[in-house]
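Here is one chain, start to finish.
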Amino acid sequence: MQTHIGDHLAQGMNQEGYNVMLGTAGMQPPLCSVDDVAKTVLFLCSDAAAVCNGACIPADHGWIAY
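Its structure:
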């Protein structure tokens, strides 16, 4: 998710290692917006998600697989 926390962490990142990671990554998913996560939460709170329980549902555009 795009937050200022990621910006702060990136300041101390090894740029050479980061560039190697980007070049070898199989995919580069976009960051999730707060609105995207809110829509997921709203769905899970709705009757449409009545069959969902006790599950961890990543809302991260695939970053968990990164």
